[in-house]
Amino acid sequence: MGSIGGCVIDSRAVAIGSSEVGDALSMVFGDFQASHGIPAVSFGVVEAGELVQSGAFGWADVERRVPVANDTIFRIASMTKSMTACCLLMLRDDRLVRLDDLVEEYLPALRGRDLVSKDSPRPTVRHLLTMSGGLVEDDPWADRQLAMSLASFDELLQSPIHFNRAPGIAFEYSNLGYAMLGRIVEIASGKPLPQFAQERLFGPLDMTSTTFEVGEVSSGRRAHGYRASAEGWAPEEALHHGAFGAMGGVWTTVPDFAKYVAFHLSAWPPRDGPDLSPMCRSSRREMQQPQRVVHDDKSTGPDLGGLGYGMGLMGAHHRRLGQVVSHSGGLPGFGSHVEWLPDCGVGVVAFANLTYAPMRMVVRLAFEKLEEMGCLSARLDAASGDLRRGQALVGTLYRSWDGRLLAEGAADNLFLDRDLETRARDFADLRAAFGQCTEVGPLRVEGHLRATWTMSCQRGQVGCRLWLSPTNPPRIQVLSLEGLGVKSPTKGL
């Protein structure tokens, strides 16, 4: 087993869409639904732009004994936030909103309001998008406000609202902030958020079963929400769309949401070529980048670090699987989670109809199962011509040293850091220890100017690292070779 481009590669890899993987994932999600006492769970796996696995377990409507189906419609709670962020960034791309605009330019009720200190900056649209607007964490309160009317929301802002921190200094999860963003979308576009989202996002992605309004969902297709009680599952009332719908009101199915996950995954990698999606690739990638550090031990572990909030999405880095993008959702009656791996082109989503069901847990279990089965294959980004020429030069030097060739491609620091004579001895020592190279592995690129690769030799492997300079033309600023996997003495160059 090796590591390429952030994801684990296994020669025994099984196709994610195979029946073997489907059976394994069904066991993961089915066992989780039963062991956690959840009325219904629905899941899906996205790869290469398609829903390749899905399943559903339990009851969409407990009282009427209606079983859940793959196309049952669930409320996805805070997973809505990335959709609101998409709408806002579309308006930014249309030059109708700027991220550094003050919120009070759109919501005049906030003008002149006291903040936590005289030197606090006024909150901006960017602050709200990245959960750093200074507003207090508010899940217990905000989760009950979905149906608030716009008139009541405007009265709330006039009241005035209170801040917990100075804007722009720390992450703090605010549903009120995303309700404000929903209002900004309406003011800047001249359309209600559900209409704008339908015209610019849901419609173009063919998400035909996705809506903000529960009244548009037939009872027979809807997952009814429940809470755990001493007597069993107690029904939770489904609130209608209102001013807080922007933070958590969307209803959708696994097949519909799979299209949304594919939409975000298709933004990777950066590349030439037409960009025909309803939102440009660069803005989608922007959403997925951590903007504010999140100090949350529950979301990290030995394999996952660097957790941060982007724009309606969380970002982190897995030490084997590369970049991780995710978001959870929880409301009275529902729990949900989505996670995708841009380096692998794979996403997993799961919905449940139990209050705050811990769906992040089972999605992580699903990824562990996919990794265990060798299903996560890496995308190999295209290498620039300069990197390919550098790799070829290293191969030539390893076979038969010629210092003049290296000197011709060297940046002015290369021999100051390690002189030419020493590098010649190092190449000779490695060749004596490992023998001649028999096979050169693919370039694992880190942009246009950095790459690593391995060379399989007669007595082991040699790892190679190449960095080019930002000059025109690019020249070699770092060249490092290291013996791998044998007992012989090795050299670093």
Report what the structure shows.
The chain is α+β, with helices and mostly antiparallel strands. The chain folds into two domains: 1-379, DD-peptidase/beta-lactamase superfamily (Beta-lactamase); 385-484, Nuclear Transport Factor 2, Chain: A. The chain is built from 15 helices and 20 strands. The protein has a nine-stranded antiparallel beta sheet with strand order 5-4-3-15-14-13-12-11-10, with helices on both faces. Strands 16, 17, 18, 19 and 20 form a five-stranded antiparallel beta sheet that branches. Helix 1 runs antiparallel to helix 11, helix 2 (81-93) packs parallel to helix 6 and helix 2 (81-93) packs across helix 7. Mean pLDDT is 93; it is low at 1-6, 8-12 and 487-492.
